[in-house]
Amino acid sequence: MTLSRRKAIALIGGGTVLAASASAAGFVATRTPHRALEPWRLAGGYADPRQRALSYALLAPNAHNRQPWVAELIGVDRIRLHRDPALNLPETDPFDRQLTISMGCFVELLKIAAAQDGYTAQITPFPEGGDLIVADIVFSQGAARDSLADGIMDRRSCKEPFEDRAIAPDLVAAIEPYADVITDPALVAQVKDLTWKAWVVEATTQSTMKESVDLMRFGKAQINASPDGIDLGGPFLEALMLAGQITPETQMDPNSRSFQTGVEIYREMLHATPAYAVLTTKGNTRLDQLEVGRRWLRLNLATTLAGLQLHPISQCLQEYREMSALFEQAQALMGRDGDTVQMLGRLGYGPQTPQTPRWPLDAKLTNA
Ligand SMILES: Cc1cc2nc3c(=O)[nH]c(=O)nc-3n(C[C@H](O)[C@H](O)[C@H](O)COP(=O)(O)O)c2cc1C
Predict the structure, then answer these.
(1) Low-confidence ranges of the chain (pLDDT < 70)
(2) If you measure from the C-alpha of residue 159 to the centroid of ligand 1, how many angstroms do you get, rounded to a whole number?
């Protein structure tokens, strides 16, 4: 039995796995792409505990919102979790590192959701040795609830400028068990410079920018039709799209107004960052990457519960030729003792409301 990869997962043989309710903040009510938001609106009310857990897991953070997971229900207690290679990101993620991390986020969320329901999810990573069969997960009764579960419905990757204030020391201390937290102003400044330069490299490298633009969903109809990728929605943007001012072509043209607006939005956002969270690993195996995904998910739930916002910014960690110098700098700056820097995120105080649209142009241009 194979499940599809959307925020709604259809079960072959009947039924659909959808996730629990959340706000449609960011989309004006009349423009809400209802179908794309459905997973948050519908509760995980399924008889099968695996389906209930999946209905939460599919809300996991994931690179470029590719939702690369495919689940197979086997027997009465097992899920075989696959990664769909059709959703690879060959330009920005040529070694599928970020997609494997994304699978780790899914696995951990599944485990926490199962425990919330009283089930232990026993995880065997990469059971066949390859990297596309990501895990076998066996459910059995009896598990202690994980308090991080309280953050599931509010967790988001916050793609907004953060407030210009240092994170309270007690909150830094609360987050430190989950990640290396960078608050030292000199180091923060260096990382900021690096993340900005790396963003510019990605946006001005034809192949990597095209990969993102190809994944942009322009307006409500496209978002509903393909509730993955990077969504550009909301009344203001839709008006600009109708006027022909935002198109895939303008997004690719560094001289266009919409491209320049995007640059300004990112410049402001990336610079409005008081701290960073970093995850590193000793090695860089598939298992390391999966484990980092699991840690990132826990970190993101912890930041959510701490009232902080977290925003992955992966450009300087990406492995393609044009990025190589900045990649090396990032590793040297944040990887201790030759460790691999796997995840880097902006950390700070941001808008408290969970933000549903996945693309900062939306909220920012609406206010412009
Ligand atoms: C491995 C990984 C890398 C990511 N890199 C970026 C990034 O570079 N920039 C960004 O804005 N979001 C990044 N994200 C966040 C995703 O865009 C986000 O998880 C996805 O759109 C779903 O949104 P949500 O986390 O708010 O549910 C990354 C997420 C993961 C798991």
Answers:
(1) 1-45, 352-368
(2) 9
